[in-house]
Write a structure and sequence with these properties.
single chain, 550 residues, alpha+beta, elongated
Amino acid sequence: MKRITTVLTVLGCSLLCATAANAADITSSGYAGGTYSVSGTTDGQTPVRIEILKNGCVFDDLTLENASESYYYNSFMNSDRDGAYSFDIAVPTEPSNYSVRLSFFDGTSLNDTFATYTDDDMNTAIASYISSARTAGGLKSVITSYYGGLSVDYSKYKSLGTAKETEMFNQLESRITGNASFSVTDFKTFIKAFFLVEDLNSADADGVVSIIDSNAECLGIDTASATYETYTAMTNKTAFATALKAKQCKVNELPREFKNVIIFSELKNGLWNEQIEILEKYDADTNISDSDWGDVTSETKKKSVLSDFRTAVINGTVDDIGKIKTKINKLIADYVPPRNSGSTGGSSSSSSSGISSSVSETPVVTEAKLPFDDIADVEWAKIPIIALNNLGIINGKADNQYCPNDTLTREELAVMITRAFGLTSTESSGFSDVPQDRWSADAISAAKQAGIVSGISDTEFCPTAEITRQDIAVILYRAAVNNGKTMEASTKKFADADSISDYAKDAVSALYGAGIISGTNNGFEPSRNATRAEAAKMIYGILEFCEVIK
């Protein structure tokens, strides 16, 4: 408090002294050797402000809105105890009139002009300075000396903390290194983009979208690219904006992360048989071409590679566009046909609970002749239904009829899950309504011992009851955990999230985060009974995620 009081006393004295004498003057001013110098006196120690406007700008036209574009220099100093002040400001060296205004604490304003470059000549001088000052420290001096000519919002620049200022110039040095043609325009664009990215990283979803929509080219986003075309076609950009903001990009990283968010959103949400179309759509960024597939010419083999690739994307082992080509090439190189012998068996291992788990071979998906006549209308589930039928995991309800829109019972799901993961058990389930001679008894027992299913009570399983979408999610989540897999919960909140039962919330969130479920137009519809088509798609997704299907 004593220190503050002292400062106030000094300023109070300065104000009284300056007002009484009302004396402030320029004793000398002039331009020489790249420096404009001005000095003078005030009557007592007081703040002195100097403003220099760029060529063609006048103080009468100065507004808050055009200030950053009009100022060449704007700063202040305190005169010494004797009232003397002196400014030495680096400026370019060719004649033209710049306006100078000195303002003093007593309200006095004194004007001056000095010779310097025109705006075009100033850009030439700055370009020369940039070409010779290509380190972080040298580039910092360009801004501090020429920020007016660079149209830099100096107040915003001055508000940067030390860490951010260092980051800014290191990023700028990285941008300039090896780029001999880096221009004044490039410099200005970088500075503007840096502050835009700072704003983007702290904005809400709508703010992120607004910044990108208005400044895409300045931010380095290729507006002619397939990723930008996808972005502009989005009807709801909230999820994209949230994902991009979560990256907390640096200015040099933003163009790449923009592409990453777009491409990997599609890769995660697309089925494995859609991966090739997605990769082809973004071939300019992924660098995947037909020649990369080499001897992998059959659609079945290609889809097997893409199935493995999708699993890697969902698991996060491939999370950058630069890793895509490397991963695809490795999967192609590792692929030793035939992977599928037509059997649904495989090597097995046993746990202490007496439950065995087998790893299935890749299914042969034959699309020339469909195994069922009634799945054409469920295109989104056709491949999973065909694949799971080929593996013996699901069957039809009648000759050539899968009945995709029929609802599923609890015992039917238990049978599908135990077939999918190769779970077996010879023990009784302990449920009074599941006798040992019931067709589903062994499956229910195996799934119960694995901790994947439970009864509606300690003694009843209720095998013929229809199963809800949220209960399937819980069972599939338990199956993944039982298989040693972990899932990261999604931040997405379905429109009907409040209607999801507490016991199912974590499972639904985890399966969405893994790309296994995506909800419907009405939300997740947790209490609606699941259809056989929905069950096939979800089971196939969990098998891909758990790498049971290779």
